[in-house]
Amino acid sequence: MAERTVSHLKKGEKGIIKSFSDKVMSLKLLEMGCLPGSEVRLDFIAPFGDPICINVGGNYSLSLRLNEASVIILE
């Protein structure tokens, strides 16, 4: 079974960050505050489905492209 990522979330769904599938992209995401153990919630989806807006840890919103969101593996 494929691992569940942020790109699989539906609007309003939450998940806990477990790890990342891409080493280079993980550095960018870590710098933006996407830390393992943080809760993320999908808040908005653009009309054509990309980009999306997630809330990280209840503290701030972050816009990501789907290819970036697919790197964030959830528990």
Automatic annotation (TrEMBL):
Pfam families: FeoA (PF04023)
GO MF annotations, alphabetized: transition metal ion binding
Lineage: Bacteria, Pseudomonadati, Bacteroidota, Cytophagia, Cytophagales
Transmembrane segments: none
Record keywords: Iron
Domain Ferrous iron transporter FeoA-like: 4-75
This protein's name: Ferrous iron transport protein A
Taxonomic superkingdom: Bacteria
Gene3D superfamilies referenced in this protein's UniProt entry, alphabetically: 2.30.30.90
Source species of the chain: Dyadobacter luteus
SUPFAM superfamilies: C-terminal domain of transcriptional repressors
